[in-house]
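For the sake of clarity, the format in which proteins appear in this thesis is described at this point. The record quoted next illustrates the convention:

___
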Amino acid sequence: MILFGNFIEMKHASSGMTAQAWRAAFVVSLPVLMGYTTMGAAFGILLNRIGYGPWWALFMCVTILSGSLQFAAVGMIAGSMSLAETAVMSLLINIRYSVYGIALIEAFRKCGLKRFYMIFALTDETYALQVQDERPEGVDRGTFMFLIGLLDHLYWIAGGVAGAFAGSMLTFNTRGIDFAMTALFLVILTEQCMEKRNRIPAVIGAGATLGAMLAFGAANMLMPAMLLIIGILLVLRRRLDAAETGAARETEAAL
């Protein structure tokens, strides 16, 4: 009886913790909800403009989950790009995710089978929220990170399908609509830079990107910029870790 009572109590506590994790993940992902539904809708509208309806939007949003690649895919499909060209373009567009993976590799290792979906669901905005790690006390980090990725994915799917339906029923000028993704990323970057520990990596990223653009041109800067960012971060890793630890201690002391 005692063992059964303990089991029920543990199960209830686990359910409460899971509910708390869901609530926490939803709250921190609200900016992404607003951005992804808008951005996903923009993608769905553009996809519909080239003759692909809601079912195609659903399929692409479920299986690709890369806003920049999906927007580029609209042009690839419209321009009848070859499979080889599509593969190379996809690699170049998404190579930046390798940097995110390096930063989260230790955290993902502790997540069991969930890590495979978490790797798939890793986007710019999801990464920003996972690194920020604003979970309540008592919530498992792996569960929290998993739920952020899942919720962001659902937001994107909902936006994409809604946009495809809207595009099939409404007629309007779609010029500039793909800027929604850039705007969302800038908002999240601005919020991240409000914390002192995030400013140095942001400056490194901006400087490396500008240098690569000046050296290789806007059309060819992505790969050199990413390699340069990875190299600088690896060289400065210990110093950045020390600065982050110091910033965390200052925050704890202030509280």
